Amino acid sequence: MLAVSLIWYSLLQNTACKQKSCRSRVQIAVASFKEVLTLTKKSVKDIDLTGKRVFTRVDFNVPRNEQGEITDDTKIRAALPTIRYMLAQGAAVILASHLGRPKGKPDENLRLDAVAARLSLLLGHHVQKLDEVVGEEVSLAAATLQPGELLFLENVRFHPGEKSNDEALAKAYAGLADLFVSDAFGTAHRTHASNTGLAKYIPAVAGLQMATEIEILSKCLHNPQRPLVAIVGGNKIADKIRVLHNLLRSVDSLLLGGGMANTFLKAKGYQLGKSLVEEDQLAVAVKIMREAATLKVNLCLPSDLIVADSPEDGTSAQVVTVDLVQADKMALDIGPQTRKSYGDLVSKAGTVLWNGPMGVFEVDAFAQGSIELLNTLVQSEAYSIVGGGDMIAAVKKAGVDKQISHISTGGGATLEFWEGKELPGIAVLQEK
Ligand code: ADP
Ligand code: MG
User: Fold this and answer.
1) How far apart are CA 169 and CA 357, in angstroms?
2) Domain coverage including residue 127
């Protein structure tokens, strides 16, 4: 781990790396970083699973409609290779996941029965679903679980100790199994009992999905095919703006859209009417623009926008340049001129990292920015990585999900990875 930290340190210090002469030096450091990272973490493939009881943390936090029906099972499908592999190797598999935000107590709307049923259907395998997270019933079921069988615990966030990483709960999880497999990249940025806590007591290795995420994201962030273009949009501005500092150290161009772009435009002095702007973050935006100039990163903001009276009302939509947003309007998508200029950069990119849509893509009148740029992306030669729950929904709406090189299962985790943090859920995995 020390080696990784040292390489990171040298990377982050290397702020003058935008000049071509420096680039090669950084790439050497970066290549070693990738090797260190990918070679040191054990995965299920590095361990004998025969007859082992395996506590497996998955991320089945699937989107659901008001009736509680699953609207997208991508997250369940993403864990199937790991589950199938472990069952085939003769492991007894205990699955644990969270769903929604149950506040540390049981919530009837957030039970995992429908998720277990969908898993069973996709896997073509019996899934024994329990109604508890820990306790006598769980211990007994785990103790009698046979190789090739599958047990599924109740929503781990029903237990108050899950999010606080309670020692006793972590021990109880560890007591159910011989081995911990983490396949929940989506929660790798959290320090919770079921994704980091139990690793204190039993050996922890990566599932196949986790291993793939680590490998692809490391390579594309630290040793990418250039030009490296990052696109950041959406409405979680305060969360995402921190990431931009570190992204500036590796990207060639940074394209902003959505509420993020509005905040930067406001920081530049434009009037944005009723648009979503994070007033608290204006000073941070100014700092990032200065840093980009120093580092010679091409930081791009929209030159035109689609504005309307409200996000629900597509009928009043009109195109304006950024200096002409009226006081009663909201900027809800990037305009055609911006789509073209962003598209030109994307079509010449070697790698594109994209988190957060360019506009309120849920409404057709404000979806064009995201959809057109996604189409340009998939027609380009670039290796494309897309993350973020809403961004993935936008990819599906555009119908290009099969053409994206890697759809990351993490939203916040992917961003923190880009930010250069060592995620706690990765740190606990055993070195080879
Ligand atoms: P992701 O889930 O991909 O990380 P976010 O959660 O940050 O993305 O943001 C997605 C949301 O941002 C979408 O619901 C979208 O409607 C909204 N959004 C995008 N652009 C704007 C905008 N200009 N004004 C208001 N909301 C926006
Ligand atoms: Mg979101």
Assistant:
1) 38
2) 39-209
Q: Which two tokens stand for residue 10?
A: 């040298």
* Per-residue model confidence as pLDDT tens digits over 282-316: 999 999 999 999 999 999 999 999 999 999 988 89
Do residues 258 and 366 share a domain? yes
Same domain, 161 and 254: no
Pairing of strands 304-308, 330-334: antiparallel
Residues 59, 190 within the same domain: yes
Q: Whose CA is nearest to atom 15 of ligand 1?
A: 360
Q: Which atom of ligand 1 is nearest to the CA of 391?
A: 3
Residues with CB under 5 A from ligand 2 (ion): 389-390
Q: Domain count of the chain? A: 2
Looking from the CA of residue 389, the nearest atom of ligand 1 is: 2
Length of the chain: 432
- Dihedral class, residue 53 (left if φ above 0, else alpha if ψ from -120 to 50, else beta): beta
Model confidence over 313-340: pLDDT tens digits? 888 999 999 999 999 999 999 999 999 9
For ligand 1, say whether the CB of 30 is within 6 Å of any of its atoms: no
